[in-house]
UniProtKB/TrEMBL annotation:
One of its GO terms (biological process) is small GTPase-mediated signal transduction. InterPro entries: RASGEF_cat_dom_sf (IPR036964), SH2-Ras-GEF_adapter (IPR051853). It comes from the Eukaryota. It comes from Hirondellea gigas. GO terms for molecular function: guanyl-nucleotide exchange factor activity. This is SH2 domain-containing protein 3C-like.
Length: 171
């Protein structure tokens, strides 16, 4: 509820961007998550979130979700085959990402004038290790995914509480 209220507050402050997201980007994101929409030909960074989510899970995680009749991945609960077909499609997309790395690199070189001149610190932004350390700190990056997700939930709650307090003070 808090995250929904925060989202509504952000939408009120940034109406044009919210309209653009709702009308154009949300449907595109949904189709990419459902593996219905192939990547655009000029893609520099492909949409790999579903593939990463599949790779991060282990069998115990999947079995425990089946016992509780809930799922982390959106397509698992809405499909008669428990999302196996879509999971296969996402795994095939992961293989395609790896095969097209040269194309992504070429596209990046066209968009970024001279990528060789970029400093290593700027390139770190695109590394998984950077994101883990940025979100969870050096020690937190070494923790297992359940602890990291719990920490991320605490961060979202703190951000939501901060936004709620700023809304109440402005009223």
């Amino acid at each position: 509820q808090r995250l929904t209220a925060t989202w509504h507050m952000v939408r009120q402050k940034f109406t044009d961007s919210a309209f653009s997201f709702e009308s154009k980007l949300r449907s595109t994101l949904k189709s990419m998550n459902e593996c219905n929409n192939p990547q655009a030909p000029n893609t520099v960074i492909p949409h790999i979130l579903p593939f990463v989510m599949i790779c991060e899970r282990d069998l115990e995680d999947i079995y425990s979700l089946r016992r509780k009749e809930e799922s982390l991945l959106q397509w698992e609960s809405s499909s008669s085959d428990y999302g196996l077909q879509m999971m296969l499609q996402h795994l095939q997309e992961g293989r395609t990402f790896a095969q097209n790395l040269a194309t992504y690199r070429r596209n990046a070189e066209l968009i970024l004038d001279d990528p060789e001149s970029l400093e290593d610190l700027i390139l770190d932004v695109f590394r998984t290790e950077f994101h883990l350390k940025f979100l969870f700190g050096s020690r937190g990056a070494l923790r297992d995914s359940q602890e990291r997700h719990a920490k991320f939930n605490q961060i979202l709650s703190a951000l939501s509480a901060h936004c709620e307090s700023s809304v109440e003070s402005s009223v």
